[in-house]
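Justification of computing resources. Each target in the renewal requires a structure prediction run like the one illustrated here; the chain below, 177 residues long, is used simply to show the kind of job we budget for.
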Amino acid sequence: MYRYVAFDVETPNRYGNRMSAIGISVIENGAISEEFFSLVNPETYFDYFNTRLTGIDEDTVAFAPTFPELWEKIEPLMSSGILVAHNAVFDLTVLKRCLRDYGIQWKPAVKYCCTVQMGRKIIPETSHKLDVLCDYYGILLDHHKADSDSHACAEILLRYFASGAEEKNHIRTYRMV
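Resulting structure tokens:
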């Protein structure tokens, strides 16, 4: 089994070019082996909608690291395996835009899996919203909290593999530049 790095980001506004939180859950040898969470000071404003959804506002992140400060810490984790997210293109795009806007060089492309896309093939008869899948599999979820969402994504991936999903059939490439 590959090493997987499930992650989830929360954003401060509708533009999707900054994070206000990130959760990371690492899967090794068929189990979650490591987890990480941090608030992120996005150095921009918060939309009311995003604050209401995530509970994060300017005051919450006032003393949190900025993305470049946090990236120094999480880059080794993010580089250590195949990235996984629920609706992965959203989270990967936010990551890509943060890297670009802060002038941080990383990889030109990353390998990833999307648990929404996988779910549509593995259990096509159900909704693939994160909360619905968590109910389906009996996974606890505090939705729109990056640590809980990344953990749930990792658990869903493990359930898919346990049901016989072939890893190699679900790995895609996302261009980071």
